[in-house]
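Continuing from yesterday's entry. The apo prediction looked reasonable, so today I'm repeating it with zinc ion included to see how the binding region is handled. Same sequence as before; SMILES copied from the compound registry.
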Amino acid sequence: MSESAEPRAKPGSQTSLRNANQRRVLDTVRRNGHLTQAQISRRTALAPSTVSNIVHELIGAGLLVMEADNAGRRGQLISFSGSAGHVVGIDVGNRHLTVAVADLNQRILAQRRHDLPAGHRFADDLELAGRALDDLLDGLGTARPELLAAGLTLPAPVDLDGRLISASSILPAWSGIDVREEAGRRLGLPVVVENDANAGALGEHAWGAGRGARNMAYIKIGHGVGSGLILNGALFRGATGSAGEIGHSTVDERGRVCRCGNRGCLETYVSSEETTRLLADTHGPDLTIPDLVAAAAAGDVGCARVIGDTGRMLGTSVANLCNIINPELVVVGGEISRAGDLLLDPLREIVSRYGVRGSVQDLRIEAARLGIQAHVAGAVILALQHAELPAGAGPTR
Ligand SMILES: [Zn+2]
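Holo prediction written out below.
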């Protein structure tokens, strides 16, 4: 990401110190949302008088605002002003594209979801995302120059430089593209690219079922199956960005050949396609996962059986994962997670059977609270983390 366009202050000078302190205040408000000046002071370890000066400078520069706390308990709360800038989250799935615009106070202001054809191409997707973005900005009365960064999530492994790792990816038409570079050029913004299971983990950890969890695994069940790992409070991406590929853990080495080239991977048993395929003869070829979940909830025995079996198939791989990383929480996401305990009870039973007691006795297994929103929420969080905030406000500016 490019450095700030601010003229560089000499290291160690008063101006450089004030800029550094401003950044600490801005970053603290960005990470935590609304805070009192006393909370900012504690979290930045800056003196209350220093915080007060900086906050007033940043209010003067139009970046921060001060509002009364609605609950009336904590005094004035500091947050970003509407004109401080916005970020974009873009979630590209196997058959959908969602674009969301958020402010710097971690609020999604507007979003739009589009269906995509099979085999959709990168250039078309980015063009659609650009049009959707312009429409959303029009509706909000905001302009492109106010955008600071975009987060883009994909159902494919992404390396630490934002490139697709695997040629056998779920997005064959995206193969070989330097997604971060190309998307950045097309959108005219700094773009951070992430795998959708990792983004889902970030989303659920920040805003959903995983709030406050120190160690958690997010399991995404969709066209592909993957996991995102939060370890010691932060996303764990592994040496190359490929951590968490639970969908390609081997269930039966003599099973069907998987798109990764191995045989009998978990994904070949529990992906959306496999789940609906099991019911094609009895329930028709066009059954979707939401149909399946609704039918099971209404008492359809076959649909309930398939959902329960999906939970059981997941169980062994999730137990193995828990034996290794010992999370306190497993969050299950994707459309099928709306089945709730129909899916989760069989999963819990198998995890408690195959998990080492010390690893799983206090483990919670829950459905994603953000549902299919988890990935675009993660994209927004990534954009917020990578947005270069304007700073350097003050008398010497
Ligand atoms: Zn595989």
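Comparison notes:
- Residues 1-7, 393-397 have pLDDT under 50 and may be disordered.
- The chain is about 40% helix and 20% strand.
Will overlay with the apo model tomorrow.
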